[in-house]
Amino acid sequence: MRLETREEAQLLQQLEKPTILIVDDEEIIRDLCARALKDYRILQAENGQAALKILDQQEVDLILADIMMPIMNGLDLLLQVKERDPSQLVIVMTGYADKDIILRHAKLLGNAGRAELVHIVHIHHLLPFSLELHQALF
Length: 138
Known about the structure:
Blueprint: H1 6-16, E1 19-23, H2 27-36, E2 41-45, H3 48-57, E3 62-66, H4 74-84, E4 90-94, H5 99-112, E5 116-119, H6 123-137
Parallel strand pairs: 1-2, 1-3, 3-4, 4-5
Helix pairs in contact: 3-4, 4-5
């Protein structure tokens, strides 16, 4: 019989938490989101293409993606994720306050299927509710 080391116990505890993939080209935003979501297991990607590579290797409970990113933006990521798994929970965030930009992207999100567009300041309050609702539905 083998006893778990402290590190193994911490790793097991971390793996039991819901996993959130934060996708943003700005490292400071990824780090801020990760700190705000410290009760979850966090993975990070700097663009949509890097996020897809992570998704090839492991499942996540929620994808939190910025709209405006180089290489692959959040909307293109959303479309590819929904093609792979229509039930995947995705929240697309923006730091923009321009009403026209938000409305244009919200329309694209509506055409892409189930996704939410939220301003970055509301993320901390929205995620627990979104994860619970998604678990109840799927």
